[in-house]
Amino acid sequence: MATSRVELKKPLSRASSRAPRDAEGLAQARLISKRAEFQMSFLRVERRTVREQLDSFAALGHNEDKEAG
């Protein structure tokens, strides 16, 4: 009788056996994506700050040239 149970039992499909790993991989991919979004937003703010500083230094240098001339 034990062999008949094994024969009647439906084998696991590849998709169902892979589902837990896929869910874990998807969660990791989301975490990596969120981390990358945060880093990119930080870099955008940093770049904007540097650009503003360069503009202000350029303006200061331009004003000094006018005062000297």
Description:
Residues 1-10 have a biased composition (Basic and acidic residues). Residues 1-23 are annotated as: Disordered. With 69 residues, the protein is mostly helical. It has a domain at 33-69. 90% of the residues lie in helices and 0% in strands. It has two helices and no strands. The protein is rod-shaped. It starts with a helix and ends with a helix. The model has no long low-confidence stretch (mean pLDDT 77).
Layout of helices and strands:
Blueprint (H helix, E strand, L loop, with lengths): L1 H7 L5 H55 L1
Short summary:
It is built from 2 helices and no strands. It is mainly α and 69 residues long.
Label this structure with key terms:
mainly alpha; rod-shaped
- Largest sheet report: none
Number of DSSP strand runs: 0
Briefly note the structural class of the backbone. Answer: mainly alpha
Q: Give Rg in angstroms.
A: 31 Å
**What series of H and E elements makes up the topology?**
HH
Mean pLDDT: 77
Q: Strand fraction band?
A: under 5%
How is the quaternary structure best described?
single chain
Measured between the Cα atoms of the first and last residue, the distance is: 105 Å
Provide the low-confidence segments as ranges: none
Query: Shape from CA axes?
Result: rod-shaped
| Residues in helix, % | over 70%
Q: How many H/I helices?
A: 2
Biased composition (Basic and acidic residues): 1-10
Region (Disordered): 1-23
